[in-house]
Structures are given as C-alpha cells and as structure tokens.
Design goal:
Layout (H helix, E strand, L loop, with lengths): L1 E5 L6 E7 L9 H12 L7 H4 L4 E5 L1 E2 L2 E2 L4 E6 L7 H4 L23 H8 L5 H7 L4 H16 L4 E9 L2 E2 L8 H10 L7 H16 L6 E8 L15 H10 L4 E6 L17 E4 L3 E4 L7 E2 L2 E2 L4 E7 L10 E3 L6 E3 L10 H23 L5 H16 L2
Antiparallel strand pairs: 1-2, 2-6, 3-6, 4-5, 7-8, 7-9, 9-15, 10-15, 11-12, 13-14, 16-17
This protein binds flavin mononucleotide (FMN) and ligand EPS.
C-alpha cells in the first residue's frame, strides 16, 4: 500500500490517492469522516477549524461499500477556499494586478524561507500553502482506510496526549484499549489522566493570552499486531524505522520513542529487555513491554507503544524577528490567525500515520489482492506462531 496527497491549504480541495488496498474489503465513508472530525477537535485550535467541516467524498476505488482493488481516491473540500478565490485561482493574472496576501516575510520555524530558496518562490505563499499542516487531513483520510483494514484483522489502534507544556500525564499502562479510546475521546485535550486535563487547558489558554504557542508529547497504542511483522533483513524493511520516519514527517514532529525510549540509555540491560515466556493459550509473550513492541525491526506481538514529540507551533502572535526577502530589512512577524496548541489534533494524525505503516507492512507480508484471503492468511499465521 502507498499513498499520495495533493492540495494547498487554502486551495479548492485536498486529494488522497491510495493504492494497494485489497479488493472486497467492507468500508464505509462514515468511518473516514469520524477520523476527520476527531482531527479537527482539541483545545487550542485556531479559528480555521471553525470554518472547516472536513467530510470525505469518495471518487474512486469503492463501490457499494466494498473496495475494488483499484486506487481509492478521496477528496476533502476546503470550505475556506471561497474566501481565497482571487488568491488561489489557477488562471494567469493580468500584468500589474496586485495579488492579495503575498508573503515576503518568512516565519521562523516554518518551511517559508527554505522552501523559497529551494523552489525560487519570491511569494512565499507558494511554499506555505503546501507545507501547512492542513495536509494532515488528507493523511488522516488515508490512515482511516488503513484503520478499517487493521480493525477487520483484529488490530486496534488509538492515540492520546502524554504531555503538554511540561505537564505530564500519569502512567496509564494498566488501562484497557477500550478505556484508552473512550477516555481520550471525551477529553478536550485527549489525555487519559483527568488530573492534568485542566492544567493542560490552562497552559494552552495562558500561552494564547501571551501570544505564544506550546508543544507536547503524544502516544500511539496498538493491540493485536501478530509477532514477526516487518523484517530484520534490510534497513528499509524494518517496521520500527518506517514508523519513526513517518512520525517525523508529521508537521512539527521532532522526535520519536518506542516503549521506554531514551530512558533506555540510563538503565542496565537487565532493566530494559523483555523476558520471553510461553503458555499454551497465547504462545510466546513477554513479561514486560519496555521496548514497546519491537525487536529487530519486527513486532514482538506485544502492544506497540510509540511516542512522538511536537514542537510549539511556529506562527506566534508574539512576534519573532525575521528578515523581509524584498527589503532585506528586519521585521517582527505579524499573524492573522493560528493554532496555539495542536497537540491533541496531532495525536489523531499520528494514530492514522502509524496505522498506515502497519497496514502497509501487513499487506506486504501476506497475500493481499483480496481481503478475505488476507484475513485467512493472518488468522492462519496467528495460529502457526502460537504453536511454533
Ligand atoms: C495538526 C497540526 C496543526 C498545526 N497548526 C499550525 C498552525 O496553526 N500554525 C503554524 O504555524 N503551524 C502549525 N502546525 C505546524 C506547522 O505546520 C509546522 O511546524 C511547519 O509546517 C514546519 O514544519 P516542521 O515544524 O516539521 O519543520 C501544525 C501542525 C499540526 C500537526
Ligand atoms: C487548516 C489546518 O491547520 C492549519 C495548519 C497551519 C500550518 O501552518 O501548518 C496553519 C493554520 O492554517 P490557517 O493559516 O488557514 O489558519 C491551521 O489552521 C488543519 O489542520 O486543517
């Protein structure tokens, strides 16, 4: 499975094309829409999210509720486009016509300056329109299709917020998958720890009041992945490495950890590695899950626990210094609107991005032209490794 996205933040629409989804897989657009809606929520989002109501239009690859095996294309319309018709139109403009909202002042922390240098755009709107995290809606749509596939193979995935602005949620390792899903969904900051909900929201409000922004840490949690998915034989088939790369590809994500992650550097091996055990019912399992479900680029069969760190949003109402590329004069950046914290929304993005990588690995490893065949192959494999 692979996918491409297209679309500018204030352009007409976002488009996602997914290839390699098995045929005859039941799928409904309500599930994709539910994912899109979840991404739009969260305390700290800016005014744009009040304008958009992300709904998917399926334009190919699905018929009467089943996948065809052909490319699936998904469209999400930008409701804000109507305010940007003259700015984002495709037709050439008459010479001398002034275009609204040209950008000559690069924002620190954004793609603006580097993108302008690389592609030769003197109007940096040509950069920011595509580098904007608006694109993550298109990626969530792809991930929602992947989630549908995983769920029907008995693999569940969710995400929640572990930390915002240094406020850390308490340990949640004893919570069931169902509890994680329900509690995160009910929380305005998608945390599983009720005690930090208000402090997190206060920190977001405070940052907003001060014209600043804040970041945080999110966690994706997966149950039901069989052991041995991925591979150790080549660097680009290691599933943890693929997940790490795709997490870092999310706008503003700067780091990734599996299980206890960086803490492993401060511990002895006996405190890090997960001892192997066996029983008739489960087959092989681990007494602990400190390595977060991966060894040697492959799943261990234990829950996958992966964290991503999001830096604070770069667009600030409290201006940072930059240089106007036309005048070369310094200036203090001014802002019309921005999110002050998008960590809760980003957790939903990460969930879907990880889901896609898992579905990709599964469809590579098992016969996957037809979904019922894939389902049977995964079921047989589960039994085979249980008795191994
Ligand atoms: C869900 C989400 C929403 C975001 N919202 C904003 C925003 O409103 N303003 C902003 O400047 N950056 C926002 N960002 C982050 C920028 O898109 C990102 O920092 C920028 O594209 C530069 O990429 P980099 O930080 O990965 O280097 C958001 C990121 C995510 C994941
Ligand atoms: C549109 C979304 O996020 C946007 C991501 C973003 C950025 O610079 O990354 C900047 C903001 O866009 P605007 O300038 O239009 O307000 C966010 O709203 C979205 O998540 O759907």
């Amino acid at each position: 499975m692979r996918y491409l996205t297209a679309g500018e933040s204030h352009g007409k629409q976002l488009t996602t094309i997914i290839e390699g989804v098995p045929s005859n897989m039941p799928i409904v657009k309500e599930d994709i829409n539910a994912s899109l809606l979840r991404r739009q929520k969260g305390h700290g989002r800016g005014k744009r999210m009040q304008i958009e109501k992300d709904l998917v239009e399926i334009t190919s690859g699905i018929r009467h509720g089943y996948t065809l095996g052909s490319p699936i294309s998904l469209v999400i319309h930008n409701d804000d486009f109507k305010h940007w018709l003259d700015v984002m139109g495709e037709d050439p403009i008459e010479e001398g016509t002034k275009i609204r909202r040209t950008v000559s002042r690069p924002r620190p922390g954004h793609a603006d300056l580097n993108g302008a240098l690389k592609y030769g755009h003197r109007d940096m709107r040509n950069v920011l329109e595509r580098s904007s995290a608006r694109e993550t809606a298109a990626r969530v749509a792809a991930g929602a299709v992947a989630k549908t596939l995983l769920e029907q193979l008995g693999i569940e995935i969710t995400a929640y917020v572990k930390e915002i602005a240094g406020i850390v949620a308490s340990d949640d390792s004893s919570l069931s998958m169902e509890e994680r899903i329900t509690i995160a969904e009910e929380s305005p900051v998608r945390t599983l720890d009720k005690n930090v909900e208000k402090p997190m929201m206060d920190a977001i409000d405070q940052a907003k009041k001060e014209g600043d922004s804040i970041g945080g840490v999110v966690e994706v949690y997966v149950e039901g992945m069989p052991a041995g998915v991925g591979s150790y034989v080549h660097y680009d088939r290691k599933l943890d490495s693929r997940i790490a790369g795709s997490v870092i590809s999310i706008n503003a994500f700067k780091g990734v950890e599996f299980g206890i992650g960086f803490e492993a550097a401060r511990k002895n091996g006996s405190e890090v590695h997960d001892e192997i055990a066996w029983n008739k019912q489960e087959g092989y399992y681990r007494k602990t899950n400190r390595l977060g479900g991966f060894e040697g680029g492959m799943t261990t069969g234990m829950p996958i626990v992966v964290k991503g760190v999001m830096k604070p949003i770069p667009t600030l109402y409290k201006p940072l210094q930059s240089v106007d590329i036309e005048t070369k004069e310094p200036f203090n950046a001014s802002v019309e609107r921005s999110d002050s914290c998008a960590v809760p929304a980003a957790s939903v993005v990460m969930e879907h991005i990880v889901a896609f990588e898992l579905a990709r690995a599964i469809t590579e490893q098992f016969p996957s032209d037809q979904f019922p065949v894939l389902q049977k192959a995964v079921k047989d494999y589960r039994e085979e490794i249980r008795c191994f």
